[in-house]
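Input/output pair, single chain:
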Amino acid sequence: MSVSSEMNILMIVGISIVFGFIGGYLSKKIKIPEVVGMILTGVLLGESILGFITNVFISDTKPLVDLALAFIGLGIGTELKFDAIKDLKKSILAILLLESFGAFTLVTLGVFAVTRKFHIALIFGALAISTAPAATADVLWEYEAKGELTTTIFAIVALDDIIAIVMYAFALSYLEGVIIGGQILLLKILLDSLMHILGSIALGVIMGVILTFLSHRIESINKLAGIIFIGVLTSSGIAETMGFSLILTNVIAGIIITNFSEFGEKVFITVRETVHPLIVLFFVLIGSILKLQLVLHMGLIGIIYLSMRFTGKFSGSTLGGYISNSSTKVRKYLGLCLLSQAGVAVGLATSLYYSLITLNEVGFHLGTLILNTIISTTLIVQILGPPLIKYAVTKAGETVETFNTDHT
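Output:
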């Protein structure tokens, strides 16, 4: 019997958060982003080592994970102020297209060279597009990063997942068609994907408008923070019920709120500090999902996925920066900030696994291969990614310490 099966779920949540804070604190003491310490704490508490956090517990706490992602999405949206991005629209679009499809193309070609099966290569290529918004945003907030590079990072990680979700829908339908020999209806896939994205955007706009309207009538920071919390909870519940993207819905709401409401920076800081324990729990749970033994057995496909994804992201963002005449620091450092991958990729891979194992034996083995590869590579990029983000924004002079030093 596991340790956690004998304990109350709230006690496990509390202990996980406490140890997550400790892991983050120790990580920060050795000049490493807090999120790395939280994730490694999760690995320690998970079934890979201690077994304190079980897969059953992770499943039971999914609503908390979803709520954490919702607030992270909202936070990313609030960073995308029109005044800050109006001069970056051209560069953001060029970089987004080249880094996302750069990763997609190189991973697809690399996996196809090994497997000689296009349907397998295509699904890996689609999964390679997404960038972890949670880990990326957490590092930027921890070091209070501000500037052109930081704004570009927030925009890219917010938009990456839209492209990933659309490409994944196409790839999954094609893969299932190959496995079961069914008809591949590309038009239906496109319409379903567009409804998913447009529904998320519409819901985010509606919630953002409602919260903006209320912000003009309430002056108390605490009451405004409470209204935001209720709004995020409500919009997230509707998004989950309707099958929309929870992250995208709240990113859009955040964009509307930060650009049109009376909410000040203090309100967003209050919300972020209030839900911080929830964010700590999120990263601990992400770490507990990751299996150390899978890293040792991820094989050639895992190595190709890691190397080709990073090459595609880095070269695509650099080329996009040159084409759009971005600043030197964006061209030089943005690619280093796009390595992290977690929630969206793992979530899509898990959904894929459950879809394929019910088809036939081929589907079962393929679903297992894809899920294990994504989980094993995620552990590596979640540990390496945050320090690279810190290095990039520090070298670009956009952390609070470097910015103050450059302007004294």
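The chain has one domain: 61-406. Residues 1-5 have pLDDT under 50 and may be disordered.
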